[in-house]
Design brief:
Blueprint lengths: L1 H34 L3 H6 L5 E6 L4 E10 L2 E6 L2 E6 L3 E5 L16 H11 L2 E6 L4 E9 L3 E6 L13 E6 L3 E6 L2
Antiparallel strand pairs: 1-2, 1-5, 2-3, 3-4, 4-10, 6-7, 6-10, 7-8, 8-9
């Protein structure tokens, strides 16, 4: 009887040790998987949901998270579409509790999204991180910058309406708003 009790105790200790090792391994795998989640995946579960973005310079953007891609988010607030680079985001209020790789996440970056605005000759307002809001039409989109033909809002982009041409690095952008 004494041997049976001793063996049962040893068996219980071994089972408890195996459970602790398994729990530790699961926790470590979970931490590793979470470390691979980027902002796009974190916000993937929030597509179509109300979102609030706290941006550099104290600006707040609220609306429906409509789309996202490599380095950018699109928030729609009524008729306004706001393209926000990840670099301008300080915090997100109201993101989904779990990361989810979005089925509709765009693989293209800011440049591609800006080229669509340039192609459509849309009037845009560029809210710069540490500067004014510039209104005009995007003429050229490079790898890391754009050229804006600044003109009065409501007037078409014609040579006589253009005040000046500005080259703006993507890193200077806080929000790009289409003003169709």
């Amino acid at each position: 009887m004494r041997w049976e009790g001793l063996f049962a105790d040893l068996e219980g200790q071994l089972a408890a040790q195996e459970r602790r090792e398994l729990d530790s391994e699961v926790a470590e795998r979970t931490r590793r998987e979470r470390a691979l989640v980027d902002l796009t995946a974190r916000l993937g579960g929030s597509l179509g949901a109300p979102t609030t973005l706290l941006l550099t310079g104290g600006r707040t953007v609220e609306g429906e998270l409509r789309d996202l891609g490599d380095g950018w988010l699109l928030v729609v607030d009524g008729p306004r579409g706001l393209l926000v680079p990840h670099a301008a985001v300080l915090a997100v209020v109201g993101s989904a509790p779990r990361a989810e790789e979005p089925r509709t996440a765009r693989r293209f970056g800011m440049g591609y999204a800006l080229r669509a605005l340039a192609r459509d000759r849309a009037t845009v307002a560029l809210d710069l991180r540490d500067g004014p809001v510039l209104v005009g039409t995007i003429d050229v989109v490079g790898a890391d910058h754009l050229v804006l033909a600044e003109h009065p809002e409501g007037e078409p982009r014609r040579r006589e309406n253009v005040r000046r041409a500005l080259t703006v690095p993507f890193a200077a952008l806080r929000v790009v708003e289409s003003r169709r």
